[in-house]
Design brief:
Blueprint lengths: L1 H19 L7 H14 L3 E4 L2 E2 L6 E2 L17 E4 L26 H9 L8 H10 L10 H8 L3 H13 L10 H15 L4 H13 L1 H5 L3 H12 L7 H12 L4 H6 L17 E5 L8 E5 L5 E5 L1 H9 L2 H38 L1 H5 L10 H8 L3 H8 L3 E3 L5 E3 L8 H13 L6 H10 L6 H10 L5 H10 L5 H12 L4
Parallel strand pairs: 5-8
Antiparallel strand pairs: 1-7, 2-3, 4-7, 5-6, 8-9
The protein binds a DNA duplex (14 and 14 nucleotides) through helix 17 and helix 20.
DNA sequence: CTATGGCACGGATT
DNA sequence: AATCCGTGCCATAG
């Protein structure tokens, strides 16, 4: 049985030899799949829960047996895989709300799917997946429901039902056709939970529904006139401003950006952020100053060449011996490569943890970006090796943040963070020019154009618009209220 | 006229 | 060799 199995798969096994070199670039999730496949395919490879020393028979916790000198008895490579903590580390302490904003542990579609998943019937799931996949960068659904129904061969009512669930899930208004529709949906959600006066709700709805364009242009006097003419509404002066203020405070035209708006939306697999490849913790014994790194493996246990099979193969002869030898060699290679992967990953992370202690313990602003070349030189490896090691991986930090490993190499992160701080602290809206000047004073020399890019990445609106939002508040402009009153007093043309 | 966004170029990085 | 990133120039909106 074994022989037949091996014979059938030998071409694949040899083809795999070239592939084993690239274990380094696989993140833990993909490595798991690769290892499972390899374990399934190669009977010479085995994964055992515990390892007993072939010499003294004692259970081993680390590789060189403390009592016997012989490490593994037969000299075959053995690698210990440390288990991943199920569920992710960030859930251990605190809810996600008290985590820093910079950790984006979940992508929007997963976030929504997790909420509405239980409410979905089986035939509704693919529709939900389709809808979530089609959302644009603003979280809007440009495809018409009827189109989806036709494409998925389901009833329109089913699509509507699913869409309704999506739209009313946590960031409310995602899945709407546009800003206007989104605002209306958010208003729906708000009316269910909020205790805002019904009159205010009604006016806000009316404004969004009938006078959305005018609202954007701040033509409040005109809107007031039209409301009176068309709906017979006689509003107190300033009521519209109050309503607009209410809208600004409670709703957002781009709900997807509100919580997921850190710019890099096309990130390929933010799903990996749920499954960190490396864990960095502070050692409590050292007052939290020392950092320890732990490289996660997708499986737990000891991976090694099956010793019984190896012994059996030694007693075989001729063709059988050669085939089994191939499988054993392959298994040894796999474990060796995995050993190497762990080793380089650990060295890599140690040097990063050492160099980026400030960032790890602090915030985005403390990052002193290093280049892959520097790391490569420090480790005596080729740059491309570092690239492979960094690609697609993520690391869990002591405070619960899970960040992509590439973030340690982001040259502009610290500057972006500073831009955010400046805007948050501003009293009067800062133009891009002024932000650039302020940064220059701190020694960060960036062009005005670049500030604009960062600002957009951070989801911060242009200064003019920020100013408009501030001025929307009625209290800051009592004079405007009087103007409105005058406008209301004059009959419509 | 000023503040921004779009396009594209050059240099660094992978 | 391919890609990313910062930046300058120019068009455009307000």
């Amino acid at each position: 049985m074994f022989a037949a199995h091996i014979q059938d798969n030998r071409p694949q096994a040899t083809a795999h030899l070239a592939k084993t070199m690239s274990y380094l670039q696989l993140p833990a999730t993909e490595l798991e799949a690769a290892l499972m496949a390899e374990l399934d395919r190669n009977p010479a490879l085995e994964l055992v829960d515990e390892l007993r020393c072939p010499g003294c028979g004692k259970r081993l916790r680390r590789l060189p047996c403390p009592t016997c000198a012989a490490p593994t008895g037969d000299g075959a490579p053995v690698v210990f895989l440390s288990p991943r903590q199920p569920g992710g580390l960030h859930e251990i302490e605190g809810g996600e709300d008290d985590l820093p904003e910079t950790s984006v542990p979940e992508r929007l579609d997963e976030h929504i799917l997790r909420q509405i998943g239980p409410a979905l019937a089986r035939e509704e799931r693919p529709v939900a997946a389709h809808i979530l996949a089609q959302l644009d960068e603003n979280g809007f659904l440009t495809e018409a429901p009827a189109e989806i129904a036709r494409y998925k061969h389901v009833a329109l009512s089913l699509v509507q039902r699913v869409l309704d669930l999506v739209q009313h899930a946590d960031p409310p208004g995602v899945g709407a056709a546009g800003p206007q529709a989104s605002l209306l949906i958010q208003l729906d959600c708000l009316s269910e939970t909020s205790s805002a006066p019904p009159a205010m709700m009604h006016l806000a709805r009316l404004l969004i529904q009938e006078h959305f364009a005018a609202l954007g242009k701040m033509e409040y006097e005109r809107v007031a006139r039209r409301l009176r003419a068309e709906h017979g509404l006689h509003l107190m002066p300033g009521t519209i401003e109050t309503a607009v203020q209410f809208i600004h405070r409670n709703l957002t035209p781009y709900p997807a950006r509100a919580h997921w708006g850190d710019g890099k939306l096309p990130a390929a697999d933010t799903a990996a952020l749920r499954n960190p490849d490396v864990n960095i913790t502070t050692l409590a014994s050292d007052g939290g100053s020392a950092l320890s790194v732990e490289v996660f493996a997708p499986l737990s246990g000891w991976l090694r060449v099956n010793p019984e099979l190896k012994a059996a193969a030694a007693n075989c002869s001729g063709e059988d011996r050669e085939r089994w030898g191939q499988a054993i060699a392959n298994a040894a290679l796999v474990t060796k490569c995995l050993q190497q992967r762990n080793h380089t990953m650990r060295r890599l992370m140690q040097i990063i943890a050492e160099g980026q202690r400030d960032f790890i313990l602090g915030g985005d602003g403390d990052l002193r970006p290093s280049t892959r070349v520097q790391i490569a030189q420090a480790l005596g490896l080729h740059e491309s090796t570092i690239s492979r090691a960094v690609a697609g991986k993520s690391v869990a930090l002591p405070d619960g943040r899970i960040v992509p490993l590439a973030k340690f190499f982001d040259r502009s992160l610290a500057v972006r963070d500073r831009v955010r701080q400046l805007v948050e602290a501003e009293t009067d809206p800062l133009a891009d020019d002024e932000i650039a000047a302020a940064l220059a004073k701190e020694g960060l020399q960036v062009a005005r154009r670049t500030v604009a890019k960062y600002r957009k990445m951070l989801g911060i609106l242009p200064a003019s618009v920020r100013g408009r939002q501030a001025r929307t508040h009625l209290a800051t402009r009592p004079h405007n209220a009087r103007l409105t009153a005058v406008a209301l007093a004059t009959p419509p043309a």
